[in-house]
Amino acid sequence: MPRRSVALLIETSNSYSRGVLDGITEYVRHHERWSIFLPEQERGGRPPQWLGRWSGDGIIARIETDEIAASLRRTKLPVVDVSAARHLPDIPWVETDDEAIAELGVQHLLDRGFRNLAYCGDPGFNWSNWRRDKFRLLVESAGVAANVYDSLSRNDPKYSWNREKRGLAKWLKDLPRPIGIFACYDIQAQKLLEVCRELDIAVPEQIAVLGVDNDQLLCELSDPPLSSIICNTQRTGFEAAALLDRMMNGEQIDSAPVLVAPQGIQTRQSTDILAIDDPDVATALRFIREHALEGINVADVVRHVPLSRRVLESRFKKILGRSPHEELTRLKLERIKELLTETDLSLSEIARRTGFEHDEYMCVFFRKLEGMPPGQFRQPNR
Q: 0.85 cut: is pTM over it?
């Protein structure tokens, strides 16, 4: 059987797209080899001239404009979309799970004790609007104060950085403090950090900022370094390639989205703070986060604060919505899941790193909370 020829209309200028391309590469490496055509492509640019005369077998594309969509439709080839813009709503598409991203972002800021939250979005992108809408629902259900700001879209013909900066500055000045801001993606978060610096707003003490995409270069170059949600872009590319393979084999695939959940959060200085007015609860929470993986229990926590266990648990739950024991459990579970999905460490080594004397104890702990043993969880989430 001759090699199939597949074109990738995906830009290489940002870490998200490069992650998608890595996932496609991984799929091809473990399945039938494809002949890959990866031309230089600008996001949202005009359709490439070669597309009309290309005689390949399938295409994976970020379809960002009606013009690109029309050109792809004319090829009559199998196409999988990896954009949220949905210019071809009747074809298969793979995208980030934006509601799950919003859940992770809101929880990250709530975990740091913020009772004022804000969202800064770009209304020109569906994924930003979906994250914003879920943010609103989550914040309302949490009973905390929320602010939403749709910045001037980069797609707006009147866009200029100076104009956007003025709008962001006015918004930031009027926000209550301390506040945690969930930005729609890292570029927007970096802009917020720049405006905070110009306004002499302390980050994260007065305003904490969280981005999305975990663009390593962008996050580390930000001042201060930017905390960011890690999208599973490789999984997105892998799933897109798997769909295209099935289509090229003649299988009919419906247009229901394949949504890929985020992997977690890379915490850096921009959110590395506890916004808690109660100093005893703040001390307890800091101790838990610093020592949760060392096998400590609630009694160890109580010894580090001048409170009885009953008073600590009451005040802790009032502020954070959960008990010290529940916080210990949550942190241990998060770390186990992270090590299962991001490393090849043995179960015994993971148990050692998360404060369990034996891996059997960790497996019982994990099964009770997740409904499955660690090994079963690890395989599909790698």
A: no
